[in-house]
Design brief:
The protein is α/β, with parallel strands linked by helices. The chain is built from twelve helices and 15 strands. The strands form two sheets. The protein has an eight-stranded mixed sheet, sandwiched between helices.
Length: 370
């Protein structure tokens, strides 16, 4: 198979979908790999390293798209890339279709076979290709939130750890999955007063056992979220419904009871956000203020640490990418049910029920198409 990897064009996105070691793995399986020139520089990988690994370096993204049977990316295609997609081409990347009907329509119109990292599952039903980025985003959320709390950044001027005789900042994590767990880990390490809210009692039990007296756990209801958010200095939105738009759990009306300069970091922004007032921002202008509350809503948070993020992501994506390349998408999906669940669009058909539900559309079962 001919495999292509292009430079990401999302604003301040420095990750890349393949490392030189990945290239070597594909080439060793007799696949041909095309890399866009300078595509890996943001993550610290040179053209020479890719060439030494066996890749063909092409000058433009258009050339890579045109020559490749499968495109491996990090982020969803942007409008400039829509015309480059074509019928039958495999697109292996984060798609986040539920956050963009425009992108969904573009993928359907092109006839591309879209395999979304964020909906691929393992045998336990977990999301192994989302996990490393969730870990990074969770850890970064507290780091960035702590910075946003500083007065020059528009925050309330609270130090997460406090000092002797001065209370610690209250951090409320809404969602106790991979993102929330990693956010809590960093917030505890920075000395904050940490509360985790989740809908699953089993998950709250696990977190209580994991962190002990270092956290408080709260069962998720509207009233509980309103109460905890009102008292928070920093709120981390860590809610995920795989493939679907995030529920709006943090309401604007809650802001009136929060201290001005408190901060919300909405990590769910890729799926539309779990706060009513969220809209996507970028690393060069990451925050905005609504009703006195600072919002940090960068839609590609792990892009700030591209070396770590690229290595972590490609560790997770390589084995399934190789299976797709070796067997073809259809055969790979039959061999690995997790890959099958990753197929969100297929030859002009919408195949992810969660995305379909987000837009009030119908979908087709992928088993009827492959």
């Amino acid at each position: 198979m001919k495999i292509g990897c292009v430079k990401e064009i999302k604003k301040h996105e420095y990750r890349i979908g393949m490392t030189p070691d990945n290239v070597k793995a594909y080439v060793n399986r007799n696949h041909e790999v095309f890399i866009e020139k300078d595509g890996g520089l943001g993550s610290g990988f040179t053209n020479e390293q890719y060439a030494e690994a066996g890749a063909v370096i092409l000058d433009t993204a258009a050339e890579v798209w045109a020559k490749s049977d499968m495109i491996i990316k990090v982020k969803e295609p942007l409008a400039e890339e829509y015309p480059l997609m074509r019928e039958g081409q495999i697109l292996y990347t984060y798609l986040h279709l539920a956050a963009s009907e425009e992108l969904t329509d573009a993928c359907l119109k092109s006839g591309v076979k879209g395999v979304a990292y964020e909906t691929i599952t393992d045998r336990n039903g977990a999301l192994p290709l989302l996990k490393p980025m969730s870990e990074i985003a969770g850890r970064l959320s507290v780091q960035e939130g702590a910075k946003c709390l500083e007065k020059p950044m528009g925050g309330s001027g609270v130090l997460l750890s406090g000092i002797p005789g001065v209370p610690r900042a209250k951090v409320v994590v809404v969602g106790g999955g991979v993102v929330g767990t990693n956010a809590a880990k960093i917030a505890i390490g920075m000395g904050a007063d940490v509360t985790i809210i989740d809908l699953s009692l089993d998950r709250l039990t696990y977190l209580d056992d994991l962190f002990g007296n270092a956290i408080k756990t709260v069962y998720s209801t509207d009233a509980a979220i309103e109460k905890e958010v009102a008292a928070a200095d920093l709120v981390i939105g860590a809610v995920l419904v795989p493939g679907a738009a995030a529920p709006k759990l943090i309401k604007r009306k809650y802001f009136k009871n929060m201290r001005p300069g408190s901060v919300i970091v909405d990590i769910a922004v890729d799926q539309g956000g779990c706060c009513e007032t969220t809209h996507a921002t970028y690393h060069d202008d990451p925050t905005f203020v609504v009703d006195g509350i600072v919002h940090y809503c960068v839609a590609n948070m792990p892009g700030a640490t591209p070396r770590t993020a690229t290595l972590g992501l490609t560790n997770a994506t390589l084995s399934r990418g190789l299976l797709i390349a070796d067997k073809g998408l259809e055969a790979a999906a039959q061999l690995d049910s997790g890959i099958k669940k990753g197929i969100n669009v297929y030859n002009g058909e919408l195949t992810c029920k969660e995305v379909a539900a987000s837009f009030g559309r119908s979908h087709k079962d992928i088993d009827s198409l492959i």
